[in-house]
Every structure is written in C-alpha cells, then in structure tokens.
C-alpha cells in the first residue's frame, strides 16, 4: 500500500508547478499558497512512509524492461531532507520574494526542482535518474538567474555550461554501462557486474560518474561554478542549492551507483577519500578570505561536502580492504550524519543571510555590525548555525565531525583524523569572523533603523535552529538509531541492493 504513495513525490510538485503556471499569472490563486501546500504535503508523506520499504513498478512492468522506484533506508533519509528544507524555503519565500516580479515563475521552477530531486532519490533506473537530474538542474539554472541582473545571468551561464558538461559525462557513463551489461535498471546492472566483475570499461565509466556527479556536487576540483551561483541566487534558492540539490543530484547519485550498483572496492574508496580531503581543505581556506557573506557560505559548502564524501569513502575503503565492519559503519554514520546536519545548518545560514540582506541591503560583512541587537531572532539563529558548522559542542555539527575523526583514528588513518580536526578549527576561525563583523560590536550608523524580519521569514530560522540544538543535545541517540541506521545498512550491504529489489517485485 505504501508503495503506491511513491509517485506522489513527483506528481504533487510537478502538478502544482504546472497549476501555478496556468492559474497564478492572473492571480486566480496565489502561487505561494499552492507551493507551500505542496511542500507541506510532501514533508508529511515523507514522514508517514519513513519506516516503509518496497519497490514500485511503474505501469506494473517488471524490470529490466520496466522502470521501478525503490524505497529503502537511504532514499527515505533523502526524501525527508529534501522536503524538510523545501517547506522551510517556501515559507521563507512568502515575504522574501515580495520585491521580485513574476513570482509565480519562481514557485513553478522551485517545484520542478523539487520534483526532480525526489525522482532522483527514488528511481531504480539509470536513465530515469538522468532525466530527473536534468529536470532539477535546468530548473536550478533558471532560479540562479531569477533576479535578471548582470551578476545573476553571468553566474547562471557558468553554472549552465559546467552543469551541462557534467550531464554529458554522466550520460556517456550510463551509455557505457548499458553497452557492457545491456541493462539500465540498477539492480540488473549490479547483478550483471557481480557476475562478470569490474572491467576496464566499468572503471572508465566510474571515472565519468565521479567527474559528472562531482560537478553536480561541487566537489574539488569540479567546484568553480558554485561560488558564483550561490551568492547570485535568491536566498531560499541558495538554501536549496547548498542544503539539498548538490546532495540529491550529486552526493546521493554518486553513493548509490558506487555502493549499490558497481560495488565498492579499494580504488573507488581511495578516490572518494582523496576528493573528500581536497574539498575539505581547499574549500575552507578559500572561505576564510571572503567578505561577501553568501560567497563565504558557498565556499564552506564545498568544504563541508568534503566531510561527507570523506566519511562515506573511508567506510567503503575499510570494507573493501577487509577491515572492521564496526569501524566502517562508524565512518558511514559520521558521513551521513554530517550530510543531515549540513542540510540543516547550511540552509539556516543561507536563510539568515537572506534575512540580513533583506533588512540591511548588503552582503558585505564590513558594512554590518551589531545585528544581534537589531535583529535578535536572526542573530541568535545565525549564531547557533555558525557554532554548529564550526563543530562547537554540543551542537549537531560537533558530533558528526567527532564520529568521522574517531572512525579515522580507529582505522589507523591518523593523518586523515588530523586534517579533519584542522579543517574544523579553520572553519571556526572563519565563522568567528562572521559573528564578529555582522552580529557583534556597535551598530553601524547606516543600520540604525534596521528591524527584525517578518514572522514568516524568521519562523523557518527558528525551526532549523531548534533542529541544530535538538539533534546535538536531545535527540542524538534517536537520530542515529531511527534515521541514520537504516541508511547505513544500505551502504554496508552494498551490491546486495540487487537482491533486495528483486525480492520486492
């Protein structure tokens, strides 16, 4: 019964997107109402089916001829993340987007992007994944350029060019896999590769996937589009890009293919560890020198994705080399927990930056000051998010970073543990600068009349700030056991994904 709900995760936002385009232009029905009802219903559905597992066969056709959608612990985790951040962004947009024209287009594109991301994390078909990935990507290109100014158009064009290159490489990788196995269904491909083994063509396809999905996830050295796209986009879109988009169409897809389709080995694990460390280190040192608040946050997205890939890659590398399954699971826990945490505190930081920019008219840290007094809710929630991303206890970011460090140390990779601690320290320095120049100190004269943002803008900030505190102080055991453990089991089982899918048909 629960399996029949799965198409709604695409049908609801897709239908609402077209409904907004049809009726909201002439104000027959406000676009923000349709959008918020849609994202709210998606969040409710994702919570309802969180403990459910199963496979939905589109049209009743069995794979490999038909397309199936797979609901397991890994896809469940991402559905909750995507739709939680989506409702926060749409609520924030109600007031934030008032000074934009053509708002109905914004909400229509937003829901298209949401539909694409939900489709990516549910599909069990490689080409279907590519189609949904493109729906989400194309909508995000337009949303980055939504302001229509020179900066937005330039950033969107760069994002479009590099994103299209990533899509081409992904499509070529899918074609190679199809040519070698004769299948597009992920479970069927996994079964075929398990029988024949990994060949040179598979390794070449894997390199194409790493590059293509690495561009989508803005991992170093494929990150150059992100520092321009995030600052240029409206704040709710920046929150979506950093909070969920780069994870759904980049990180999720990469992990799903490498663990559940190809099967993890030491080569793939080593590459993920290397990319993770590069992203962590380069991203954080590029962030330190930034004075544009949103640009600083964008570089930290690159760095924080490095933590996620490092934790996942480390777990896979340990398993591939016959290491301790407990230590590998601990690394997976750290990577997935940090992915969840980053979705919350980075979305909160971008929404806080939008609240600050909306009230002050600037993103430059040197032009701010004393905002904690003038905007107490925004200032307090921004402080919580800054401490969370910096890994200060007892906030949620501290625990996920600590778990990754412990896993690296227990596996004997002391240099990796040291680098992780160093990057966390530099992150703390960077966000002390943010708080020093924007929130603390005397109020700048030009900001004397600044007031707190409207209730509908600060409501998502409070919710996300409470999650930063709750997941770190109150609900840590529950989060790890109920939310993350099922996703970890999917990664540990690896290529057994194929057996799970066929057992559900």
Which terms summarize this structure?
single chain, 505 residues, mainly alpha, two-stranded antiparallel sheet, 20 helices, 2 strands, 76% helix, 2% strand, globular
Q: Beta-sheet strand percentage?
A: under 5%
Spatially, the strands of the biggest sheet line up as 1-2
How many strands, which pairing sense, and closed or not: the largest β-sheet?
Answer: 2 strands, antiparallel
According to DSSP, the number of beta strands is: 2
* SSE series: HHEEHHHHHHHHHHHHHHHHHH
- Coarse morphology: globular
Q: Output the structural class.
A: mainly alpha
C-alpha Rg, in Å? Answer: 21 Å
Roughly what percent helix?
over 70%
User: What is the count of helical runs?
Assistant: 20
Question: What integer is the average pLDDT?
Answer: 89
- In the predicted model, the low-confidence regions spanning at least 5 consecutive residues are none
Q: Ends: how far apart?
A: 14 Å
Protein described:
With 505 residues, the chain is mainly α. The chain has a domain at 267-495. The protein contains 20 helices and two strands. Strands 1-2 form a two-stranded antiparallel sheet. Helix 1 (8-23) packs antiparallel against helix 2 and helix 7 (186-196) packs parallel to helix 10 (235-262). The protein starts with 7 loop residues before the first helix and ends with a helix. The model has no long low-confidence stretch (mean pLDDT 89).
